[in-house]
Design goal:
Blueprint (H helix, E strand, L loop, with lengths): L20 E6 L5 E6 L4 E6 L14 E4 L6 E6 L5 E5 L5 E4 L9 H4 L1 E4 L6 E8 L6 E8 L1
Length: 143
């Protein structure tokens, strides 16, 4: 956050235990989503944003996916609340509603909306368009 009336930036530690996460991002529902890539625990989790720096965020989160989420290069929400993913191996770009619990098989329910080339970008993101409810997908920096 920016310190009011200055050009300085300040931060406050609000949670702990994020060192083994591949993805951490907010969803349109205001919840924090994260993919953990660890030896003891792995999977896809969601929960309220952390507020206590002494309590690991994972303690209040719900697991919504098991293994396999680290095979994606990109994982992000788009307009309308759909979850988008690009595989590391450059074999596809996918879209579907986010999983609700660990029984959901998101990858099998997701529709393939693109083939090769997407994993070459460094960043992918949506920018809201002029028309309400519409957005355009942008890719930045090819590897």
């Amino acid at each position: 956050r920016r310190v009011h009336g200055t050009t300085a930036w300040a931060s406050t530690r609000v949670g702990s235990g994020f060192q083994n996460y591949k993805f951490i991002f907010f969803g349109p529902d205001g919840l924090l989503y994260a993919v953990k890539d660890g030896l003891q625990e792995s999977g896809f989790f969601k929960g309220p944003p952390p507020t206590n720096p002494d309590i690991p965020w994972l303690e209040g989160a719900t697991q919504i996916g098991t293994t396999g989420w680290t095979r994606f290069r990109f994982l992000f929400f788009g307009p309308g609340g759909d979850l988008f993913a690009v595989r590391n191996d450059n074999t596809g770009f996918y879209r579907a509603s986010p999983p609700v619990d660990i029984a959901d098989k998101w990858r099998w329910a997701a529709k393939k909306i693109g083939t090769t080339g997407w994993s070459g970008f460094r960043h992918l993101f949506f920018v809201s368009g002029v028309v309400p409810g519409e957005a355009e997908l942008y890719g930045v920096g090819c590897n």
